[in-house]
């Protein structure tokens, strides 16, 4: 598996961005062969069996066992209710879905993904596993209803983005026009009455996604997991974009009365007032202050605690 090879041997982020693209001819040749592979495997984790797929070369990330293991600590704490609703924004090939539905099949799961190749794969993944309470929505979430361009290096690209100003040195090989909607519009359309958890992984579009969810977040007060990549960049315009976006994110969360925690490692989260500069610490947990008993007093800068202590079932 091409991606897992790079993941295992920790190739530099720069090489990964520029070699794992169909604009790089050796990769294009290998990937053309790889796309012909179809394979399925039933695995058992924590006493639960489910099937992972490789379909037309798509789905390699689901064969990586240690992918975001910290997430395994969070899910049982925030999805404890039988009526839990999980909105996965940027579902890709179901990495988070497979951490959730095999163990919590009663959760109502909304997988939102703009990439049609990934959507087709997700539908096959849910069918082979007989996941009943999942709805796959082929949209990009933003702050407006309309259309945008999705940039990709290959068909199930983890770095696919609708925000071209987020990266400067990544070689995207293709783009496709995709529909956009706001989270508030989508939630109203689905007539949701509860939201337990929102996950956002949209490669630079986090601010727009949050801006389009403000009304729903204010009403339902969900936990929010969000990947926000480091602000640092060799390109000054990219760095300025990331800093401005981060400032807007903190303004939204402040207005919504949320605490911001950086997921520092597998078991520890730390309250922060600014974003991390490390690529290894780019995942955040946003908690409504109304249920955050560990939020620090204004005079302190940060506070850390174990995930188990922080996340009591609600």
TrEMBL record:
Ranges in coiled-coil conformation: none
Domain of life, per lineage: Bacteria
Domain Methyltransferase FkbM: 88-258
UniProt-listed PANTHER family: METHYLTRANSFERASE, FKBM FAMILY PROTEIN (PTHR34203), SLL1173 PROTEIN (PTHR34203:SF15)
Stored NCBIfam families: fkbM_fam
Entry protein name: Methyltransferase FkbM domain-containing protein
Native source species: Solitalea longa
């Amino acid at each position: 598996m091409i991606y897992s090879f790079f993941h295992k041997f920790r190739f530099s982020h720069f090489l990964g961005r520029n070699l794992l693209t169909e604009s790089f001819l050796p990769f294009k040749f290998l990937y053309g062969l790889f796309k012909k592979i179809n394979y399925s495997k039933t695995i058992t984790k924590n006493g639960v069996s489910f099937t992972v797929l490789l379909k037309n070369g798509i789905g390699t990330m689901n064969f990586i066992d240690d992918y975001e293991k910290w997430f395994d600590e969070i899910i049982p704490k925030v999805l404890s209710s039988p009526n839990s609703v999980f909105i996965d924004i940027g579902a890709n090939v179901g990495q988070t879905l497979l951490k959730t539905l095999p163990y919590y099949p009663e959760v109502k799961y909304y997988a939102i993904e703009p990439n049609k190749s990934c959507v087709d794969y997700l539908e096959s993944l849910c069918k082979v596993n007989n996941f009943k309470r999942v709805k796959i929505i082929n949209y990009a979430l933003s702050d407006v209803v309309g259309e945008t361009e999705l940039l990709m290096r290959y068909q199930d690209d983890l770095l696919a983005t609708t925000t071209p100003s987020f990266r400067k040195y990544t070689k995207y090989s293709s783009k496709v026009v995709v529909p956009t909607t706001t989270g508030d519009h989508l939630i109203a359309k689905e007539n949701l009455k509860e939201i337990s958890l929102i996950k956002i992984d949209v490669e630079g579009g986090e601010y727009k996604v949050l801006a389009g969810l403000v009304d729903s977040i204010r009403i339902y007060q969900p936990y929010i997991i969000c990947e926000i990549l480091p602000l640092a960049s060799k390109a000054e315009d990219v760095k300025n974009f990331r800093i401005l976006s981060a400032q807007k994110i903190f303004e939204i969360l402040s207005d919504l009365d949320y605490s911001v925690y950086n997921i520092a490692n597998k078991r520890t989260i730390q309250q922060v007032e600014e974003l991390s500069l490390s690529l290894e610490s780019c995942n955040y947990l946003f908690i409504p202050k109304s249920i955050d008993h560990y939020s620090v007093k204004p005079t302190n800068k940060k506070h850390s605690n174990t995930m188990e202590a922080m996340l009591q079932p609600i």
